[in-house]
Each structure stands twice: as C-alpha cells, then as structure tokens.
Amino acid sequence: KMTQQMRDLQLAQARKPPGPSSPNAAKRLYRNLSGKFRVNYTSFDEGSLVGRGEKEKLRKSYLFQSNAALFEAVELQDLDRVQEMLKHYSPEELDLNTPNSEGLLPLDIAIMTNNAPIARALLQAGAKESPHFVSLESRSLHLSTLVREAEQRVNELMAQVVNEAPSADCSEKEKQLKAWEWRFRLYKRMKAGFEHARVPDAPSSVHLSVASSSSLQVTFWEPLSVNSAVVTKYKVEWSCSPTFSPLLGEAVIDKLKDLCFTIQGLVSGTAYHIRVSAYNMKGWGPPQASMPPFAIPSNWREYDGRAPRRRGQAEALDHLLGQVKTVHQHCICHEPCKNQPQSRKHSVSKSLKHLFHPGSKFLKTLKRGLYLTAIFYKDDNILVTHEDQIPVVEIDDTYSCLLMQDFLWLTKVSCMWDEILWLRQCVTVSQSSCSCILQTRFKMLLAISQMQGLLGIQDLGQVFFEPIKDKQGNILIVTLKEVKTNQTFESVRWVPICKLQTSRKSVSSPEEPTALDMLLISVQDKLAYHQRSSHALSAGLYLGYLKLCSAVDQIRVLVPEQLPNILCHVKIRSNPNISREEWEWLQKMASMEEPVPTEPEADRAQNPLFQELQVAIKELMTLVNIPLQEAKDFRLYSQEVLDFGDQVSFLLLLPPSDDVCTAPGQNNPYTPRSGFLTLPLQIFELGEER
I want to staple 632 with a disulfide (CB 3.0 to 4.6 A). Which of 85, 186, 220, 595 is the partner? Predict the structure, then answer.
C-alpha cells in the first residue's frame, strides 16, 4: 500500500489542517497499485463538502493520509518522522493498531526489519503486533506470499514496459514498476529478518522486592541480546516452588514504558519464587530467576502487630468537634445564628464588588498596629482593590507586640475558615473572663470575618509562616491563596505583580520600609513558598534528617526551601514499603547500638536495604553540610516508619541526643548550605497535614 512515490508526501500532510491539502494525490497513488492494495476510498468534490456526512468523509480521508504517512515513515526507517507523528497524534488518530491490506501493522514492519528504535517508540505509544500471526508458520507463510506476489507483479509490469511503445500510459507503468520493485525489496528484507532472528535471551536482571503484606514488586531489564528481533512483551510467573511446579500465576506485560510489575493478592508470610521471560516474533526466550530468588509479602507493622498511628484520628476529631457544636448550639450566644442564612446571602450578593466600592473598609496605610492581608494570585497576577491596593484590614490598632502563641493559634484557625462565625460567637461568651489573650483572638476572628465579607470569599488560604514587622510598630499577618480556576468574578481587578511593585508610591524610606512595602518587595518569594509548600513527593522510601532549634517562645525545624512541608531528605528507593525482615534487621542494629552504616561491610553486602542506606546517608550528609565521619554518632529512629499515605514513607536520621535541638546561644558548627530555612514546628505540622 505504501510506495516509494510517497516520499514526496510531507509530514505536514499528516498534521491537523482544516482539511487534507490533496486527498486526490493519495487516491491516485493507491489506485495505481494492483488489487492487493485495495482501499475503500470514496471520491468526492472538495468544494461541495457541506453537512455532517461530508465532514465525516473529510475526517476519514485525513485519518487515511495520517495512517499512510505513518506506514511510509516506518518503511523508510525515518525515526524522527515517526516520533514527531506519535507526539502530535493519538493512536486512534493514526489508526496505530489497524492492519493494512497486507495484514501488517506498523510494529510488524519495524520488528521484521529489526529497527529497534522505531519499534520501541511504537511500543511505548501502545502499538501491537498483528493478531493474524498466530504461529511462526503463519508468519513465515504470510511473508513468503507477500514476496511471491510482489515478485510476480514486478515481472508483469517489467514485461509490459519492455513490450509497449513509449507513451503516457507506459510512463505510468514505469512508475508502478519502480514502486513494486521497492516493495519487493522491502518484503524480502522483512522475510530475511524473520528467518535470521532467534528467540531473545533472558532479561539481563530481575529484581524482587516486597511491596506490601499482600503484594510483591518485580522490576526487570532488557536482555543483553535480543538476537536480531525486538522484544515486544514480557511474562512474569510466580510459584511457591523453586521448580515452578505448580505455577500459581502469570502475567504478560505488553506496555513497555516501565519494565515493572506488581503482583497483587498474595498471602502474607508465604514465600514466592519469581521468574521473567522475554518474547519476540520468534517466541518466548528462557526465563530469568529473580534476585533474591524469593520474597515474602509483609509489612514492618507485622513485627509487633502495631496498628497505624493515625488510624481513626481524623474521624475522632470530627466527632469531637461535632459534640462541641452540639453543646453550644442552644447557647444564648448562638441566637443570632437563626438569621445567619439571610446575612450570608447579603454578604455573598455584595461579593467582590466591595473591592471597588468607595466605602470599603480596606486600608491603604498602616498606623502602628496588628493587621491582616489576603493575597490571591493567579499565574503572575494578583488581586487588588479598586485603589490598586492589596486587601488589608485592621485587627487591633493598640496591639504593638504579637505573641507567638496568638499567631500559631491563628494558623490553626486557617484550617476551618468556614467556621469563623461559630468560633467568634463562642469566644464572645468566653470574654467574660476579660482575658487579654481571648480579646486579641476575638479581634482576629472579627478581622477574618470582615475580610471574608468584603471579598465574598470564605477560604482565605494558607497563613505565611511568619508575620511581617517594621520599625514603625506595624505587624502584618499574610494569607496566601492560588486561584486555579478559570472562573471570572464580577468587577475583579487582576494586576500583574511587577506592575503593582513599580507603580506603588512608597511613603517610607528605603532604610525603614513599612510592612506593606516589605510585603510588595518580597511578595514573589512568598508566592514561591506557597506553591512549593503544596508539592508532593513521588512514591518511595525516603531518609529524613530531623534537626530542631529552640528559641524563647518556639521550636523551629530545618526544612528545604524547595519543599518546605517536608523534612530535609533524600530518596532511598522507589518502593515505599519496609518489609518485616528489613524492620527486624533495623531493630537488631538499634538494640546493639551500632552506628549508622556509612562504610561497606562484607558480611552485609547481600542486604539490599543496608546498601541503599549507605548511599542515602552519604548523600544526605553532603546535602546538610555535615562531615561523613560525624554521621557515625547519628542514629536511625527505630520506633516506627513514618507513613504518609500508601505511597510515601520515611526513615528518620537523628543527630546525637544532645544535638537534636540546638538551644539559644548554642554554637552549631555545621551550618547547612543555602537552600534551607527553619519553620515554627506548629507551622511545619500544619503544612505536613495539608
């Protein structure tokens, strides 16, 4: 179906134009070939395409050309062209797994011409082999038939060209002859490739690890030699017997983007043997046994039957909060709640219009006090009031010193923005004690309600980990929220951050900037922090470094700037599970008070976790700027593995007991390199939960 003449077709014809540039050119090309290249292709006038039926014909014509161009690129062994088509079009658009009139698929041509790069690209895109080749004999017979028919057609056209006088018809037959001669050579090359190929060698390596108490993970690598034929699938087999008799199960993997497979539904505590074999067009090669030769599904919790520490905690807290609400719902302080729906409706109706209402209570300047500001951003734009100001409301104009306990309390309140009205009413009753702390917190709740009402938005986002303080006695608490939706708000003004920074007229000197000026100067850093603090780790087991430092009113924890919601860490491996056997080894090492493994030891060389920890500890010590010899005094936390969901787990590396937390004034000889910061411990815990 493809001929040498199709080299003149440009790749642009396979892209998505409004319509095919010349479908008749493709028709003529394929009509010139003999009956073996039959294609159901309906002729139509491009100028009369009107209506749904004609558009469907146009779409099919376009898909036909895309499929034809892909076949041509594979046959011409044009890797760049194949990769570009696979990048821009889906398998459905290319008809990737629809056989042509010869019963061949693009992958068949690639593997029988032994073009490994193109075959791998097709396999990763989801290409399959033709289902017509059910046996080696059927494939051999099919190729022989194609070669014989192509040779016969070449001979027929050769005779016609020799015997006919020069004419336009003769010139057309010469073109057909060249096309068939090229196809004859292609089929012979495919037949020779098939005949010389052998079954592939065994996979070069098979690694077995324990994924959970009921599953094992198998990772394998390509054979060192595929014997002139590309591997198109793998088979994983498992059994309780080293002879694999009886066989408990098998799985065929034909999606080769990741050579990894997880065997599910296994029995905890039972040893399973695993082997993997490779397949090419000549059949299955010999199997490769896994390393280690067997594994037992298990989890570290089975060592002492420990239940997950956080199991049921979220439900228990929700239940406790419900009980508190039930106790307070008949309280006199909640009588105004009866009118809450009407009040809320009124607030929402005003919505963001208040941003541009001259009577809004947003502040333009600060006058020695405690304030709240909310930063909403989208891409490089920030939400501002009608006066091009970041929304700011006053908390307390007589409060010149923010206590850390009040600030940390506010960060916890940020986890329940929707409950501000209820919290405010509860604190109102408690004010009878005339506590200064309660009065301050009540004013914070009032300011939050005011901000929510003026913006018409309940969720004010995440509280930045430290307030901004200036020399004029102003304290600015900052909340950050990214707007990801394409929702359009009425009368909202989005301003580019850079424009806001350059257009604002500062009322302070560079030596003593106000808190608002300090906010604008550092707003991009704060947005970067907010975005990074929501990033998640990829699945795996990590080694974390716990380092604290204390102050008069708080404890802070060392974290990386790029991921401030996680401890300083390095990745140990992609499998997050710690098996029971691995945990037993860690417990034994802890009970013997052995130092952490920093140097290789011959008797432990066969322990994969030991080797992985060696590499991870060296990398982590380099990261936090601690000499490796100092790590000999460090300890692995052996009370538990820290599980964050099902896909991420941590082992903790601890300094000596006296150095876990650096006291005020205590010298720390090993200062981490740039790229780290210290967060208040409560802020870190909240970020971890988010």
Answer: 595
C-alpha triplet 55, 56, 59: angle, nearest 5°: 90
Q: In this structure, are strands 260-263 and 283-284 parallel, antiparallel, or unpaired?
A: unpaired
Residue 342 has pLDDT above 90, yes or no: no
The enclosing H or E element of 23 equals helix 23-31
Instruction: Give the Cα separation of 679 and 667 in Å (integer).
Output: 19
Q: Count how many domains the chain has.
A: 4
Q: Number of helices (H) and strands (E) in the chain: give both, helices first.
A: 18, 24
Residue 429 domain-assigned (yes or no): yes
387 and 514 in a single domain? The answer is yes
Buried b (16+ CB within 10 A) or exposed e, 392-429: bbbbbeebeebeeebbbebbebbeeeeebbbbbbbbee
In a domain, 49, yes or no: no
If asked whether residues 426 and 451 sit together in one domain, one would say: yes
pLDDT of residue 160: 85
510 has a pLDDT exceeding 80? no
Neighbouring C-alpha atoms within 13 Å toward the C-beta of 572: 24
Q: State the sign of the Cα–Cα–Cα–Cα dihedral 171, 173, 179, 185.
A: negative
Residue 44 in this model has a pLDDT that exceeds 90: no
- Residue 683, domain extent: 540-689
Does one domain contain both 518 and 410?
yes
| Nearest residue to 333 (alpha-carbon basis) of 431, 251, 448, 244 | 431
Q: How far apart are CA 189 and CA 227, in angstroms?
A: 16
Q: pTM to 2 decimals?
A: 0.75
Residue 565 and residue 440 share a domain: no
Rounded (10°) angle between helices 79-88 and 52-75: 150
Q: Is the dihedral of CA 189, 190, 194, 195 positive or negative?
A: negative
User: How many whole angstroms separate alpha carbon 506 and alpha carbon 182?
Assistant: 77
CA 319 to chain centroid, in Å, comes to 34
**Are 69 and 78 within 8 A, CB to CB?**
no
Statement to judge: residues 378 and 524 lie in one domain: yes
Tens-place pLDDT, residues 599-650: 655 455 468 899 999 999 999 999 998 888 888 889 899 999 999 888 999 9
Backbone angles phi, psi at 10, to 5 degrees: -85, 155
Residue 79 and residue 225 in one domain:
no
The pLDDT tens digits of the residues spanning 183-228 come to 999 999 999 999 998 999 999 999 999 999 999 999 999 998 766 6
**Which tens digits make up the pLDDT trace of 553-568?**
788 999 999 999 999 9
In this structure, which amino acid lies at residue 88? Answer: H
